[in-house]
Amino acid sequence: MQLSMGEEVLEYARSATAPGAQTQSATEYRWLARRLTEALSDALRVADSRGQRIPDPEAATEDA
Fold it and tell me: In angstroms, rounded to a whole number, what is the distance separating the alpha carbons of residues 40 and 27?
């Protein structure tokens, strides 16, 4: 769910900052920056969690 929300925010950011897009207000850009920051934090948390589940190849070799 977190990654899906991040994809939605990224899609919105791409369209809002595309060449020729309507200029947004400072408040709207601030809102977008906050949502992107939240999405990046979520993505990093997911990546870290998944990375912790990957077995260490060196430890696997030592156990064999």
Answer: 20
